[in-house]
Design a protein that fits this description.
heterodimer, A: about 120 residues, mainly beta, seven-stranded mixed β-sheet, 11 strands, about 0% helix, about 50% strand, B: about 110 residues, six-stranded mixed β-sheet, five-stranded antiparallel β-sheet, about 55% strand
């Protein structure tokens, strides 16, 4: 079974631009979560989607947004990029999107975003 | 603010020894706990998860959970140089739809 895929793998953008990242979950997984990883802050939760609905959102500004399509693929968008947005953006998928057992999340390879 | 705390390390052990990694969490509503391994430049890889108090063994790995103490640990037996990586502890949020990660413990296994 194929794993989580993310595109693009690397991206260089300029301050003020916007960017869209894509994630395809493991086949059959309906929950997709996004995380930002930086050396200083570690892995931080951005948001989670299940059946095209955002169910949870982390403490990030409104410049960070996402969506999920009917085939469970997800995109996240960052508008008006800032230097501090440079990070590894990770997508994770899960078979079951509810609290309790069977909520293991499997990560994709990530998108390395550099903002100059 | 819900937090997961880990010693950053580095934790250095010789090949063949037992490596013990520890983690505490602040949200008593957390029900599920996970250990991920992350090699430099790679994404996190799930190696263990535990939901009930006690021990759970999988090969060379044993996860331990004590909800009363809000403590999770990972033991790696017969450590190998290939185990050298950063180990991330994560707890589910009370809503269950997000993982709260610690900043990771760097493990170095010397041959």
């Amino acid at each position: 079974k194929a794993g989580v895929t993310q595109t693009p793998r690397y991206l260089i953008k300029t301050r003020g631009q916007q960017v869209t990242l894509s994630c395809s979950p493991i086949s059959g997984h309906r929950s997709v979560s996004w995380y930002q990883q930086t050396p200083g802050q570690g892995l931080q939760f951005l948001f989670e989607y299940f059946s095209e609905t955002q169910r949870n959102k982390g403490n990030f500004p409104g410049r960070f947004s996402g969506r999920q399509f009917s085939n469970s693929r997800s995109e996240m968008n960052v508008s008006t990029l800032e230097l501090g947005d440079s990070a590894l953006y990770l997508c994770a998928s899960s078979l079951v999107g509810l609290a309790g057992p069977s909520y293991e999340q499997y990560f994709g390879p990530g998108t390395r975003l550099t903002v100059t | 603010q819900k937090e997961v705390e880990q010693n950053s390390g580095p934790l250095s052990v010789p090949e063949g020894a037992i490596a013990s990694l520890n983690c505490t969490y602040s949200d008593r509503g957390s029900q599920s706990f996970f250990w991920y391994r992350q090699y430099s430049g790679k994404s996190p890889e799930l190696i263990m998860f535990i939901y009930s108090n006690g021990d759970k063994e999988d090969g060379r790995f044993t996860a331990q959970l004590n909800k009363a103490s809000q403590y999770v640990s990972l033991l790696i037996r017969d450590s190998q140089p290939s185990d050298s990586a950063t180990y991330l502890c994560a707890a589910s949020s009370q809503a269950g739809t997000a993982l709260i990660f610690g900043k990771g413990t760097t493990l170095s296994v010397s041959s």
